[in-house]
């Protein structure tokens, strides 16, 4: 996720608790979705779709934080 921001992600994970929380939640949702799709965990198609939408919203939030932080770093 966002390889162009790899270094910035590492920095924010140590300095920004909100970013870390969102990042961890995104990864947890991603794993849960994979488990449900692989039938390791139970879940309906509808439940998976809801989780995917939530994950996408979090990804958008992470991207906004990264863009703002990157703008500050380039000044």
Describe this structure in words.
Helix content is 80%, strand content 0%. With 75 residues, the protein is mostly helical. The radius of gyration is 14 Å and the shape is elongated.
Number of helices: 3
Spatial gap, N to C terminus: 24 Å
Largest sheet: none
Uncertain residue segments? none
> What level of helicity do the residues show?
over 70%
Question: Which descriptors would you attach to this protein?
Answer:
3 helices; 75 residues; mainly alpha; 0% strand
Q: Outline of this structure?
A:
The chain has 75 residues and is mostly helical.
Mind sketching the topology for me?
Elements: H1 6-15, H2 17-37, H3 45-73
Helix pairs in contact: 1-2, 2-3
């Amino acid at each position: 996720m966002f390889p162009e921001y790899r270094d910035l992600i590492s920095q924010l994970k140590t300095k920004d608790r909100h970013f870390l929380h969102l990042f961890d939640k995104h990864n947890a949702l991603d794993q849960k979705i994979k488990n449900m799709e692989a039938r390791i965990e139970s879940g309906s198609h509808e439940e998976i779709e809801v989780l995917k939408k939530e994950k996408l919203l979090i990804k958008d939030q992470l991207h906004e934080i990264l863009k703002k932080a990157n703008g500050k770093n380039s000044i």
